[in-house]
Fold these 2 entries.
Entry 1:
Amino acid sequence: MRTKQFKAESKRLLEMMINSIYTHKEIFLRELISNASDAMDKLYFKSMSENTGITRSDMAIRIEADKDARTLTITDNGIGMTKEELENNLGTIAKSGSLAFKTENEKTEDVNIIGQFGVGFYSAFMVAKKVTVISKAYGSEEAFMWQSEGVDGYTIEEANKASYGTQIILEIKDNADEENYDEFLTPFKIKSLIRKYSDYIRYPILMDAEHEKLKEGTENEYEKEIVTETLNSMTPIWKKSKNEITDEEYNGFYKDKYYDYDAPLSHIHTRTEGTATYTALMYIPAKAPYDYYSKNYEKGLTLYSSGVMIMEKCADLLPDYFGFVRGLVDSEDLSLNISREMLQHDRQLKLIAKSLEKSIKNELKKMQKNDREKYEKFFDAFGMQIKYGIYESFGANKENLQELLMFKSSFGGYTTLEEYVSRMKDEQKYIYFASGSSIARIEALPQTEMVKDKGYEILYFTDHVDEFTVQMMHDFNGKEFRSVSADDLGLENDAEKEEIKKTEEDNKEMFDFMTEKLGEKVKAVKLSQRLKTHPVCITSEGMLSVEMEKVLSAMPGENAGMAKAQKILEINASHPIFAKLKSLYTTDKDAVAEYADILYTQALLIEGMPIENPVEFTNKLCEIMAK
Ligand code: ADP
């Protein structure tokens, strides 16, 4: 019998497979089962048009492992192959033009090509030293056997096979140093591989299992019994129609698949046809996984191509800000053998990702509107991610995400920005916010006094990222954000402004003196427009607030502590301390300098900022008390 040579391309691919150091060799089984399933699909379609009487229920894939002979056999009753087809399909890499052999470096190429995806039939050579294919095409009288031990070529000869279909016999390699090939002959491994990769193949995957059973009529005599087991569950939950699936089933699937104790907050089950055809089943978890806000967390959805898993976590399907979503996408538009690099540039995949993003956002909006309690739970777990989504994109994702934002506010509880704006007073210019480490602290801030007095609502910013986020947003529907510590609060009318200006001018000399004495610590000492009863507070001018300074200085890195807010020490003109300062200024300027320092330190304390010299501060205070 003549040994035929593989085509050059096929030979190279084969070489790679045989010498593969790839760790996911196990995908060979998925590839062979998918081929079998395709062959049965083909026969099924043929039988529909030709009325052969064959139905889907006649079709199955059988698996047999023989430990002693070291063979793993996969048999299908699909369309089979003629001699020419065996020659053309297995002697050449069929249509797999997708494999562009372009790089020079074989080693990296190896990994890249096999990647997560495998390359069809030849992947059998990752685990087998010899592959035999016996096939009989449907409607043909003859059967043929194709055999190969790898790169040296293959043979084709006549064979005996009773019925149509294909049988693939793999002679499994011997165990090597670091490779355990034996396991591919064990029922346990085979079962788990099928559950992992081929659970949703539409045809039953059958394997005989030996069980011990009590011999009838005896009490302790056992006999062996062969039971045929179906290893796959066939219909994936997402392929069923929505009204066939109960919430329990949805949640059960989620808990099993993602090892989560808590039921998800909601699920999104969509089927889309058109520019991108896919089915998706996604879940919004109730809690963030423990590693969610760390670098270890990997976002992504499982990607299936017609029920066959091709990638466990496809990150490109989810934007970072929706990285908490778990689930899967099944699309007929994607080829099984697409490589990871190609997938990244796949137009279809991009369309799917865009469309998924919309579904997720709609689901969240719906939840926000219809089930506020649930949405607040969601926001507690993942709100930070939404805020980061806006901040990290420098506001580019603002339009997309701003409606999803919520903040606690002086109105009580969480509010959306839309709700805040709907409650704004006619003359109110800004969306006010105040920052602090806790709501109790924020509520006690002197800076909030005037704003509250006007009856304006204040957003409470307790997350570090909050202020950075709204700074990136600049405004919401035209309403600008304004910190209660900002230099211009826009609270006074013209007459009030005039009066403040006048008092400030009258006391300019003293304020300048205090500013000078405080030196680097402050940019200026000013008359406060926001205090009513409290004596002093610190505010800031410019982009960087005192709160932001705190966050930045707590961050690691050599620039930590470099960013400083331009601080203003504000003094309340209607507080007795102001009158005291004024009188001292005419009699004892040194005392005014001392007082300025103490007032400044007190304002720092109110802000929760560290003070440079607590001992000096306490001593000074005691000196005054003792006077
Ligand atoms: P692909 O499946 O991507 O086309 P493969 O290398 O896996 O590439 O298979 C090459 C071809 O061999 C298939 O397209 C199919 O025509 C044929 N083939 C493989 N396995 C079978 C089978 N079990 N039954 C019938 N034809 C098969």
Entry 2:
Amino acid sequence: MSEIGVFEFRGERYEFPVEIGSENEIAIDIKKLRGSTGGIITLDSGFKNTGSCKSAITFLDGEKGILRYRGYGLEDLAANSSFLEVAYLVIFGELPKKMELERFENTIKSHTMLNEEMKDILDGFPKNAHPMGILSSLTGALTAFNPHSVDVNDEEQMYQAICKTMAKIPVIASWAHSKNLGKPMNYAHNDFDYIENILQMLFTKRNERYKINPIITNALDQLLILHTDHEQNCSTSTVRIVGSSHAGLFASISAGVSALWGPLHGGANQAVIEMLENIIADGGDVEKYIAKAKDKKDSFRLMGFGHRVYKNFDPRARIIKSAADELLQDLDMDDPVLAVAKHLEEVALNDAYFVERKLYPNVDFYSGIIYRALGIPTEMFTVMFAIGRLPGWIAQWREMRLNNEPIGRPRQLYIGENQREFKPVEKR
Ligand code: SDX
């Protein structure tokens, strides 16, 4: 559905189509702006007001705190579905029938082996290399072993490439973890399901079989569902723009991993725990850190707080906060960091600075509490985020390619020097 928008400038009147989305969002289609105005462009650093595409995958309403994958509410999916079911939904658009889910799971299982030469690449990293750097590099390296670019219009080729990606990334993630620990690499085993395999690859020791704990597998399954997709966030936009040059799926996801690593994005889940541990080490003075976060002269930010889109509670943070409480109770564990996190949230949400700026806890504020309870080290938190976001990256890449989106190439407003004559060095 579309209407018309009008732009008037220097006595000229320009009309542009206005598109209305299925949730009544409104977008001015400016694809003809530059051509019809003799060169005028828009300027929007950080793309805070700019839509990069039309998408049918995820809908979120930041004011109302709504998040839906393919029309299904996040709360429903988190309570009733599995991560692989949600991955299938996000990628293919429908919840899978029993046979489809079985085929998806079995095809993924058929692709979990990595070429042993990947270990030679891994050996090149120092032991203390950050696992996100390893994950990004080895994901890109998968192209070396899968050199033929996938025909996105060939359904079976695309299906196999999708399952290959879903299969291999968690294995690489576990190898990055083993590398950091100086331990032997583990492999997926077809006796385990997708979530059980992630855990057994992270924690299996050569001298004992990994024991499945349903409380732990269910907690991880739900946490990964909550990370599956989030429309055009920084890393997804990166996957889309890299893929728009027709770079392959592995290369595009490798770029997305690097974008997610930043502490303003997925890297925040690691930064939150480090911040909370610092507050505890510094005597637990929460008010001192709230004051630092408000002080414009202080570069300190309350990690895990604020969001580009959510100006209300991040619905994922709500679910994760109660899941963290429940998991610690079920495992009969106590985590002093959780108490500090709750105290920090309570003080911040009653402080004008945060209330006026609509800064609420986001997905990263409590997720680290769950990862810690699962025995996952802090440096692996963003790797776990990447595993959760993988289906979303795949879905968005596939949608961009199937929609034949043009190569992403933004314009700019030049503010540099005007033309000037070259001066030989002796005259400078
Ligand atoms: C994720 O986009 C997504 O969907 C991402 C994600 C996903 O699922 O993919 O949801 C995952 O990345 C969540 C966000 C994780 N990052 C953090 O928790 C890092 C801390 N948060 C901030 O750095 C910040 O809130 C951002 C980066 C998340 C959002 O930044 P914006 O939208 O660019 O907002 P801004 O920096 O312009 O802030 C607006 C105001 C500023 O103050 P004023 O200049 O108006 O006085 O709010 C302040 C900021 O200084 N502010 C904060 C703050 N976040 C914003 N002040 C203190 N602490 C903070 N955390």
